[in-house]
Amino acid sequence: MLPAGGSWILSADSNRPLFIQEEFSEDARALAQAAREFMEGEVLRHSERIETQDLELTVRLMKQAGELGLLGPDVPEADGGLDLDMATSCLVAERMSVQGSFAVSVGAHTCIGSLPLAWFGTPEQRKRYLPRLTSGECIGAFSLSEADYGSDALGAATRAVYEAATDSYVLNGVKMWTSNAGFADLFTVFAQVDLGDGGGSGRTFSAFLVERTFPGVSIGREEYKLGIKGSSTCRVLLEDVRVPAENLLHAVGRGHVVALNVLNAGRLKLAAGNLAPARDLIALSATYANQRVQGGRPISGYGLVQQKLAEQSIRLYGAESAVYRTAGWVADYQSAAERGDSTLPPSEYADLPPRARALEEYLVECAILKVAGSEMLGFVADEALQIHGGFGYTEEFPLARAYRDARINRIFEGTNEINRLAVTGTLLRRAPKARWPLAHAGAEIERELGGAPSLPSLDGLPLDRERALLDGLRKFFIATCGSAARDLGAAIAEEQEVLGALADFAIEFFCAESGVLRAVRLAETGSSRAEAAAELARACLGDAADRMETAAARVFARLYQGDEISTRLAVLRRFTRRVPVDGIGLRRKIAARVIELERYPLNP
Questions:
Q1: pLDDT below 70 — which residues of the chain?
Q2: What homologous superfamily does CATH list for 418-597?
Q3: Per-residue burial over 38-55, b = 16 or more CB atoms within 10 Å of its CB, e = otherwise
Q4: Phi, psi angle pair for 220, to nearest 5°
Q5: Residue 199: what pLDDT?
Q6: What's residue 452's pLDDT?
């Protein structure tokens, strides 16, 4: 039975089924290899031209990707796509992400540019547009944000007025930050439909399929960006644009369903897309550290450089383990939904297409991964530049571009602040509906705290101490979250710092647990990668546990005063008794592998 979204924080029983990237089929690996070979053979050799914003080249390369089937990973076969399961689709997205600007162009097209139509389009709409999108003949874009409506995109000022005489909607407004706008042919545009009564009849936020050639559509200048300079980002100006009623997507007032569910996919795909660039940066860092000689030896022989190489790998390990754990759940949920499986967790959106419904179920995990993946890549890029020293700061080396390109990921697909609020807000919103039974779990822990906390017994199985610590941290989080919900009540919605701290705890826990479970699986199957994975998992969990306790301390310091803060923390730390890990020694072992291989130890 598939776990409900967020249930991993309440019970270790949600650990199964577990998918790890080492278990991809040969077919999936072959497709991923084809994507990587396309990037290395056709795209990376043109990287300098792409960065000068040679948009004709970008379009040509995208059409080549379409010929290989790489532009429709999530589109049904009947509409010209590959209809991949979500895990394989993430693997392909990962391999397509090694050139930042091109990755943005492809991602904006294949995910947020095509999925609104694939999931919510009528048969006629899909027939008209999807085969052309998947072939690259037509390029897609997603126009949601506005100058005054970024994180609050559903409040959009763009208006659509229905005109009965022509059976069309007339759109007026300006959309900001539209990726691919400089060459896109089809835009998914969001607007408020004017119902003739000032919008008082309910939510009117709606989505439309707008062709570039429609009269009144114009494209603003290219934005001057910090990074991803080779991608196209423009404003889309709509002046009395008449859109046929048949191009209304889904239904009037259902634009939020389209936008939010597609953004869930975007967050998961973005997290996957952060993995391959991070691996490449680790390889660059290790190779340079072995070649750069200072003080009579390579700088890879110095402890603080080794620490950086190890920390890059540790952060990547946690993020990639969590990405494919989640992608596996989404894939299994979609398959079960298509079969009409009655054992699936109850959904608030049972009318959604199976894949969109699956992503809605794992909304919390998608938000977690967006934050974890983007911040991991930002850290890896920063440390890679630091290892390269002054050379890294010059444009002669690839680090400056990688550093700039990585920065946008914390803003794309909803800022990381918004996603942190989505993590905790969704969990607390679902709790009263029994989707996430926090009160019951909290009561169990309160009873346990009345006596001596029961510590999990060590069973002699792989990473038993780490799994025991995870069980304790799980209880620590439930108690902390329960205290905040109980003591703040409805006011918690205005305590964004508290919600952010709770989200940080959840993010750290999910990535660390995913890493431990992956290492356990590899050990149980006798994988040659088991030892390296165990080292990475132990380091990932040790660091995460420290950061989780810090996050909990921030919450208790807000809720209580004086000695009560220390007392409550001390009581909860009884759940997480542990001998501190020799983080220095562990990092030296991890770094030794990176230095010897000149790459991340668990490269695919």
A1: 14, 197-203, 433-435, 450-459
A2: Butyryl-CoA Dehydrogenase, subunit A, domain 3 (1.20.140.10)
A3: bbeeebeebbeebbebeb
A4: -75, 180
A5: 44
A6: 61
| Tens-digit pLDDT profile for residues 114-129 | 999 999 999 999 999 9
553: CB partners within 8 A, 6+ apart: 565, 569
What are the backbone angles phi and psi of residue 305, rounded to the nearest 5°? Answer: -75, -40
Identify the architecture of domain 257-416 in CATH.
Up-down Bundle (1.20)
Nearest-angstrom CA–CA distance, 36 and 30: 10
| Token pair of 415 as six digits | 């800022």
User: Could you confirm whether 494 is annotated as catalytic?
Assistant: no
For the domain covering 142-253, report its CATH number: 2.40.110.10
**What are the Cα distances from residue 465, in Å, to 65, 319, 458, 460?**
47, 21, 7, 9
* Set 375, 383, 413, 549: catalytic member: 413
Strand 233-244 relative to strand 293-294, pairing: unpaired
Return the structure tokens found at 430. Answer: 């679902």
Q: What is the pLDDT of residue 345?
A: 78
- CA-based R_g, the chain, Å: 24
538 closest CA partner among 463, 588, 486, 483: 463
**42-90 pLDDT, tens per residue?**
999 999 999 999 999 999 999 999 999 999 999 999 999 999 999 999 9
